[in-house]
Amino acid sequence: MSVSSHKRMIYAVKGGQPIHIDDVERGLACGCFCPACGERLIARKGEKMMHHFAHRSGTECEKGYETSLHLAAKDILLRAGRMILPPASICFPDSPKVVPITDGPIELPIDRVELEQRMDTIIPDVVVFSGEKKLLVEIYVSHKVDDIKQKKIEELHLSAIEIDLSRVERTLSRVELVGILVDGTENKKWISNEYANQLKDQFYKVAEIKPIISRGYAIHVDNCPIKARVWHGIPYANVLDDCSYCKYMVSDNRERILCTGKERIASIDDFNITLPERLKKEAEENRKKFIEKALRSIDMGICPKCGENLIVNPCEDRIIWECTNSRFCDFSAESDPETGEIIIL
User: Fold this and answer.
1) 251 alpha-carbon distance from chain centroid
2) What are the tens digits of pLDDT across the range 23-39?
3) Strands 229-231 and 41-44
């Protein structure tokens, strides 16, 4: 039976160890066996087709190719002694919120690599050991990690990544495979990151549950901690216009909002400072945003606070901007007499 180049094995077993097609003799003299079914292999190393292993009987076992890639991963990662992991972040279900944990890819030193080591009810393709830590590596060839296995990995408090080899070039060389497994991040994604999961739980612990209330065509939550809107002295927020873009919203399941606004927790660094420090930081951020908005509004002649027109009062050494709605709005700004810089008062 003919086999596409995508299914051709480039790794086999010899003397109980993984070995690449380039490192063996041609034909049966290679002394290799299929890592899945154990059948004797022939090393086909001709001039026209890519070098590969074939079963002596002429048939191909279903899992030979995939198992050979598991062998390849073990061999390559162990030889490299390191692995680049994709950037890590906290992702919240039912929320667009993403909190970065690392600024970029992570280099993981590798001490030991094991194949298909049973852990409770799951058998990961590869297990990488780095000091006291271990990382599960799933090789996606024909079946990606499903929700059931992912949930089990999370319940076991393990970290895992998936490496997608389902769409790689059919004539993948060993050098290219090394690039994907060791240094590349494009084909890798986190299935579970235990550190991220622990941090996510910290966000949930400080979050308030705010029921979603339907009011006509709008949906609101009451007692918004940052007072996105106020009606008759009662703070509230519009779920679509305010909460969806708020840095303190960590979950929205259409029945309730999980909000960390009361504690002003928006990032990992916020856990390391006190509430008064977080409030001060927020005030500084809000002031900076308002100044940026005010400078744009002044150029358009519109008050950044209430949206009414501005009055421009040229004085001898400066220019003063005031709101035409001064009875109800206290916005004003003036230019610096020496530099001309606009100062928001």
Assistant:
1) 17
2) 899 999 999 999 888 89
3) unpaired
